[in-house]
Amino acid sequence: LEFFEPNMTSFVQPCDAGIIRCFKAIYHRSFCARALDLDDAGEVNIYKIDLLEAMTMAKGAWFMVTRETIKNCWNHTCIQPDSSAIQSLLPYPAHADPLAWTIVRDFVTSDMTLPEVESALQLHLGDRFVDADWQLALKVVMDAEGDVDQALEAVDKL
After folding, report:
1. How many Å apart are CA 145 and CA 142, to the nearest integer?
2. What is the number of alpha carbons within 13 Å of residue 105 lying toward its C-beta?
3. Where in this chain does the record put each DDE-1 domain (predicted)?
4. Secondary structure, 3-state, 57-77
5. CA dihedral defined by 19, 20, 25, 28, rounded to 10 degrees?
6. 69 in Cβ contact with 18 (< 8 Å)
C-alpha cells in the first residue's frame, strides 16, 4: 500500500482537480431546484427521490460539465505536456515533414492553386504550420511559371 504525499491527489487523480466538484455542483443545483418545485406543488417530503430520477439527474449533470471545464481541470494538474514538449516528441520538425513536401510537389505537378496548397499544408501540419516556413518553397514553384522540371529541381534543393 502506497500513500500519496499531502496535496498530491489532484496530480495523480485529475478528476479530483475539479471535474467531480463541478459535476456535484450541477447535480446539487438541479436537486435543489427539484425540491423547490415540489415544495411549490405542496409536497410534504421534498427531498425524497427514487433511484431512477436520481440517475437521470446525474446523467443530465454529467452532460452539463463542459469540455472547457474538463480541459481546465486537466491543465491545472500540470501532468500534461505543453505544446513545445509535444512537438519535441514528433519525429521531425514541420519543415522536414515528408508528407508536407509531397503536398508541395503535388502543387508543382497538378493544377492546385496557391490557396489550395496553403490550405492543404495547414490541414496536414495543424499547429505546426508556420506560413513563413513555406513561403520560399511556394515562391520557387510560382517563379518557375509552369516549368515542372525547373520547379521540382528548385523544391528538391530546398
Report:
1. 6
2. 12
3. 6-74
4. HHHHHHHHCCHHHHHHHHHHH
5. 150
6. yes
Q: pLDDT 10s digit of each residue in the chain, 158 long?
A: 777 777 666 566 656 667 888 899 999 999 999 999 999 999 999 999 999 999 999 999 998 988 888 777 777 666 666 555 555 555 556 666 777 878 888 887 888 888 888 888 888 777 777 778 888 888 888 888 777 788 788 877 77
Query: Rounded CA gap, 105 and 141, in Å?
Result: 9
Cell of 146: 509552369
Three-state DSSP class for residue 38: helix
Q: Is 23 left (phi over 0), alpha (psi -120 to 50) or beta?
A: alpha
Cell numbers 500513500: residue: 3
